[in-house]
Specification:
Length: 414
């Protein structure tokens, strides 16, 4: 079973209790979890980042089929075939001669990004340089981790050029969710005219963060209920022996970040957040870094907890009123001594880690995002670079054409 730091852990019921329900998931709550909404307040606790507003032209480019990359970075393809090849590697549809007249014109070739949105393309270049030449991209809520298989940087989301970013964004189902389905299942606010709504409009942004290669064992998801930190889950669902000796330090570091920065300032009382805890110099662990803030909603992965457990957990001291719109700073009127005393009185969150003998841990060892990956032949071709992908596309087209010819021959022979 998972390791727990709670003195009296509440066992999972196995099935969700019908009486336990999520609070209404509002558009406001989703917007509050967007990176550009909270990063300015908590930047001192985050990874160095740059936020770039996206134009409608860029969003249309991400949504459309096919992959057309920039041709100004010295990595221009050898021929136009690869530049305009669809991401799904569908063979081109051949025109069929017809006796009927047609006034339809051939579709004009699509411009590369550096010609289609030149200012934004240059801004992305500049921000990559500002962050040291290596970045990890994401949109408002999600990183394209499901598309790492196509990255030229060894199955990571590291990007060193705008083309690396375009390739990941256009190949990711996660990014499609941000653009098309972020507000699915939101509850509208009743008796409020649309004109009176104070919710800011959705503005897609590109987030570039300084790239680093984290030790995935030190990534954790934290759950906040009524402004109380109630649970912490290991994110990499594999067993790591050394984590057992760090349990108290992990809880302490995360609690420090939460109580100092998030607890009284995040607009919502219920939410989840992800952290990374690097190794310390003079002590086992350094301070926790805030990576993401996620909605308190069923589509957020609860990892080693069940949502029925989290919804059913009782908070001893009841809700704590927060300060909406606060900054990443000390709470006014609260001294460090008061903060220490409040931490001692707070509900101690339950930390769950994967244990070596946990049978369910073996199920966690399956590759991440496997549902979003392509067959091995495609992955191998992507690892061989642009030449490998061109060869694969050519072979795929030849094989498809051969099968179509065989099918036509069989039909004509009947």
């Amino acid at each position: 079973m998972p390791v727990s730091t709670s003195a009296n852990p509440q066992p999972s019921s196995g099935t969700a209790n019908p009486a336990l329900q999520f609070p209404p998931i509002t558009r406001d709550h989703i917007i509050n979890c967007s990176y550009d909404s909270w990063f300015p307040k908590y930047r001192t606790s985050c990874i160095k980042s740059r936020i770039i507003p996206l134009s409608p032209e860029f969003v249309d480019y991400i949504r459309e089929d096919g992959i057309v990359l920039a041709d100004d970075d010295g990595a221009e393809p050898e021929d136009d075939e690869w530049e305009s090849a669809p991401s799904t590697f569908r063979p081109p549809v051949e025109e069929v001669d017809s006796d009927s007249d047609s006034d339809e014109e051939e579709e004009a070739p699509r411009l590369p990004p550096n010609q289609r949105f030149p200012e934004l393309h240059q801004t992305i270049k500049d921000k990559i340089a500002e962050l040291g030449g290596e970045v990890a991209p994401k949109l408002n809520w999600t990183a394209p981790k499901d598309a790492a298989w196509i990255s030229p940087h060894q199955n990571t989301i590291k990007c060193t050029s705008p083309n690396d970013i375009y390739l990941l964004l256009k190949s990711s189902n996660f990014i499609t969710h941000d653009l098309e389905h972020a507000f699915d299942n939101c509850t509208p606010i009743r008796n409020t005219p649309a004109s009176a709504s104070t919710t800011p409009p959705f503005k897609p942004v590109l987030v570039l963060r300084s790239y680093f290669n984290p030790h995935t064992a030190m990534e954790f998801r934290c759950f906040v209920k009524h402004r109380n930190l109630i649970a912490i889950s290991q994110r990499d669902l594999n067993f790591f022996e050394f984590l057992k000796s760090l349990k108290a330090d992990i809880v302490n570091r995360i609690s420090q970040l939460f109580n100092k920065s998030l607890r009284y300032t995040f607009p919502d009382g219920n939410f989840t957040f992800d952290v990374y805890i690097p190794e310390g110099e003079d002590e086992p662990l350094s301070r926790a870094r805030l990576i993401d803030i996620n909605p308190w909603a069923p589509h957020t992965d609860s990892l080693l907890f069940g949502w029925d457990e989290l919804l059913g957990m009782e908070v001893p001291n009841g809700p704590v009123l927060g300060v909406v719109g606060g900054a990443d700073e000390e709470v006014p009127g609260m001294s460090e001594d008061d903060d220490d005393e409040s931490e001692e009185e707070d509900f101690v969150p339950e930390l769950r880690l994967v244990e070596k003998d946990d049978p369910s841990a073996y199920n966690f060892s399956s590759p991440q995002y496997s549902a979003h990956k392509l067959p091995k032949d495609v992955v191998d071709a992507s690892l061989a670079g642009e030449g490998g992908m061109r060869d694969f596309a050519r072979k795929w087209r030849e094989m498809t054409e051969y099968r179509e010819n065989v099918a036509n021959w069989e039909m004509n022979d009947k």
